[in-house]
Design goal:
The complex is a heterodimer of chains A (about 425) and B (about 350).
Chain A lengths: L1 E11 L4 E10 L2 E5 L10 E4 L4 E4 L1 E3 L15 H10 L2 E6 L10 H14 L3 E7 L12 H6 L4 E3 L8 H13 L3 E4 L4 H4 L4 E2 L2 H6 L3 E2 L2 H17 L2 E4 L5 H12 L4 E6 H5 L21 H10 L5 E5 L27 H10 L5 H8 L1 H7 L14 E11 L18 E11 L2 E5 L2
Parallel strand pairs in A: 1-4, 1-5, 6-7, 7-8, 8-9, 9-10, 10-13, 11-12, 13-14, 14-15
Antiparallel strand pairs in A: 1-2, 2-3, 5-16, 16-17, 17-18
Helix pairs in contact in A: 1-2, 4-7, 7-8, 8-10
Chain B lengths: L28 H18 L13 E6 L5 H12 L3 E6 L11 H10 L4 E6 L4 H8 L5 E7 L5 H15 L6 E5 L6 H12 L4 E5 L15 E3 L2 H5 L4 E4 L5 H4 L6 H8 L3 H4 L7 E3 L12 H4 L6 H38 L1
Parallel strand pairs in B: 1-2, 1-3, 3-4, 5-6, 5-8, 6-7, 8-9
Chain lengths: ~425, ~350
Amino acid sequence: MNIKIQGGRVIDPASQLDQVTDLYISAGKIAAIGEAPAGFTADQTIDASNQVVSPGLIDLCAHVREPGFTRKGNINTETAAAAAGGITTLCTPPNSKPIADTTAVVDLIQDRAREAGNARILPMGAMTQGLAGEQLSPLHGLSQVGCIAFTNMRLPVKNSLVLTRCLEYAATHDLLVIFQAEDAGLSSGGAMHEDTTCTRLGLNGIPETAETIEVARCLLLIEQTEVRAHFGQLSCERSVKMVMEARNRGLQVTADIAIQNLLLTDENVNGFDPNFHLIPPLRSQLDRAGLRQALLSDGFQAICSDHQPHETAAKQAPFAATEPGMTGLETLLSLSLILVDQELISLPQMLSKLTSGPAKVLGIESGQIAEGLPADLCIFDPQAEWTLTPETCKSAGQNTPFMGHTLKGQVNYTLLEGQVVYQLN
Amino acid sequence: MFEQQDPNQIQLNSEGQLKHFLTTEGLSRELLSEILDTADSFVDMSAQQVKKVPLLRGKTVVNLFFEASTRTASTFELAAKRLSADVLNLNISTSSTAKGETLRDTLMTMEAMHSDMFVVRHSDSGAQHYIAENVTPNVAVINAGDGRHAHPTQAMLDMLTIRQHKGDFSPLKVAIVGDILHSRVARSQIHALRTLGAAEVRVIAPHTLLPRHIEALGVQVYTDMNQGLKDVDVVMMLRLQRERMLSALLPSEAEFYKLYGLSEDKLKHAHPDAIVMHPGPINRGVEIESAVADGPRSLILNQVTNGIAVRMAVMSMSMSGQTTEAQRRAEQQASSAE
């Protein structure tokens, strides 16, 4: 099928392309930019005038809840939500049930994603068996069946020797390791950032050191083992400073930040709304400012959704008793556009954090618009306002503080390998 | 992006009357004084032959205690009965939730019994906020202690006790001693004392028992008991749970008592007329010396008596506010239907 996307503002941060032009798609790939290829006849023409045409977004952390937790969501619903949010590639953490530490589980996730056909899933594998932090998973075998990276998530690898062995083994095979840095002892029982709001509300706090100590330990071991490493969803100013210093010392380490940590602070928890119960927690204004500043550096190549859908009951309890996390695939782009509206970064810079930046982290070809590459595209109106409602929400989880809020930047089309996988209305 | 939440939006009705009583934080001095004045009138009533008034006649009060309690539960029960309410006492910790029922389901079950007021104690901070947000509009929720967050009736009975003995709050230096970190009582006391205009509120504890940034609540922090007690007019001791000694928070009962236990010697640093209070139950020889607990400055038993009066006050006030709100809503609905 041939598709012509006509008259859109094509922004491709990878090639620094930003111009109003036409795109031609054939056999699932970008056939040409600007002039139609010889003999091209469009089966479908998409009018993209006054809209932005960008590479399909890449989300470095999105829980799809399958297998094992389908009461919260499944691969079909969550990839549909991704498509509605302009996301064509998403990385899923390994804490499914069973845990993604065998090739069978990884195969199953990818099969289901292919069946759903809404978005590409790149599974992360468990760095240790059962995420127990004790025995190395078959990292090489898992990478052969499609695991894009390996992580132990927020579950502790307490024994530093075990962690060192994991990193050495990953480095042997040039595998990417992702850290979601958290010292389990310091964060134990915590429900929100430890600061004045936490003290007033009488909730158990999660101190900054729960993150920074682990970042420091990991950085030292990254340096020792020379593993390719990435920090996911950093939340503290001090953490991002340490990562930037490490990069300045020459370490090949990258990081991402969840969009909610760039927009909100712990003060939003005032009132005990469980939709603000997030791990990593919303931090202080100082931390948020530090994260926003870090976004301007090339060390922080990605903004992610940290999408965590939950069933309604999971948030129907007192704050600390609820399950942490918010659904975020459908709002990732619009919330990121707030950073543009606030003039923190330009639109192309913002899109680079959602396309070419995460692609570089993962070492994949996606996230750019170039002839011969798969046509993963997001076509959106940056000015159009829309409201996420329970009725329109594609994700099985409706747990977001942005439910009912009017946001700017509406996705009109999402294309995955040249197929329209989402079309507004 | 989001407006700062007003914690009182939920506990006051549109006329500014008490609809639920969840926290002392953010309530006006006038409203706190009104609670104390109303409580004062009930203190006198308790001394009379007939100790009942019909303010809650025909109403059903459910005591929902998800955590064990003796004195708080008893005084709430007695307060409700003295207001002529029908009272149902439920120790939930040993019943439905132990069978896996969620808080929301328990709540809906209680609502289906057409209750008018829930008095709730729960181990999770904010549980009563959650309940107040989810109950039907004509049910009042009284917080009988939630997690580390608030225990507003305890704080108000402490305020009543202080006012009875000291009168004006404005010259008072008050020290709160012990496990501030885990204390819902301390947080509620601090908010109430500051709103009522106490000159200085101090907290005294080792760093392991102090929440970070506690000074943001407007208190002076002391880690030395003798310095912290210097010239104070009121010493409010907190209960220290023995299990805290077994964790990494404190090395031993003996060391805690030596450094932070209220002895007659340490009390000499306070003002000569200083009063001593404790929310109970007391651990003699851990937080407080028997001679002080039973001594002439101790108001511990007065606090218990005042507890009934304060609870009668907030129950009657919140039910009144709730009824007014329900009437207003009914009138609005009737007028919009016309």
